[in-house]
Amino acid sequence: MNSNDSNFPAANALANAILNDELCRLFHGRGGLFLGYEHICLDWFNPVLLLTSFKELSEAQREQMVADIETVWKQHHADKPFNLVFQYRNAGRTITDLVAGDIPEKHVVTENGADFLVHLLRGQNHGIFLDMANGRKWVKQHAKDKKVLNLFAYTCAFSVVALQAEATEVVNMDMSKGALSIGKQNHLLNGFTSGARFLGHDIFKSWGKLTKLGPYDLIVADPPSNQKGSFVATKDYVRILRRLPELLAPNGEVLLCLNAPELGCDFLMQQVAETAETLEFVERIDNPEVFADVDEQKSLKVLRYKLIS
User: Fold this and answer.
1) If 187 and its partner were Cys, which of 69, 153, 192, 228 is the partner (CB 3.0–4.6 Å)?
2) CA angle 119, 154, 97 (to 5 degrees)
3) The CATH fold of domain 3-103
4) Pick from 99, 38, 47, 95: nearest CA to 68
5) Where exactly are the structural domains of the chain?
6) Please, are residues 40 and 53 in contact by the beta-carbon 8 Å criterion?
7) pTM of the complete model beyond 0.90
8) Domain 126-307, second-level architecture
9) Which pLDDT band holds residue 234 (cuts at 50, 70, 90)?
């Protein structure tokens, strides 16, 4: 097979990729730009490829995709071992298989000068969200000398890059103590033994504590879009927005994040206008180019706001 003539566009993306230590998405079928492959994504978690399907494949379909990828790998990246994980995800169901090679026992990936632990065989969330790369880059460029509040901190990637930018302090809050435990390891991986707090609490029951630890020059709110028992964007985002202005220092800024395809920027902007009128819209942070979507309102939304007097 000539890789340039492959019927599988993810294989073509791999043929044209420069694979180094840097974490990245190689093929984003979810953006709808590749007819017939809207269910497929391919990621590089050095030294492992992750092939994800959001609909069930037949054994023959899966084997053909893996074979196409392996052929391209041998043509273009033969100097590296071929390690591939396949994951099927749909309606809360997840099946993950290591189909070729091995995974490091302690799997550490690199993005823009920061190291993060990942776990490709453990559920749907691998430890870092690739589409948020530009959000992390923005924080790394703007957090110097600022006190940062990282809400829904997950594994604390925003905290790591904020401290790399010489933030004065970061407060991380997430109700998952397991995720925060990985977040602490991420800080140690990057040489940070101080400068961050890790609060394993329900945000909606912790406003008093957050107020006491504030005010904050920068707040990042990156909640799950629809997580039963934790956060549902359509009813819970407004509960956050009501509280944010009182947590901000003068001229403080907020990154509001939303990754719900059914909700566009207008949903979030309208809620801000109705409940937090002292927050002024500044810009939408662009997503990485590889995450281009036929409808950008369906892709990740990262909206920057500033507190006005």
Assistant:
1) 192
2) 20
3) Transcription Regulator spoIIAA (3.30.750)
4) 99
5) 3-103, 126-307
6) yes
7) yes
8) 3-Layer(aba) Sandwich (3.40)
9) confident
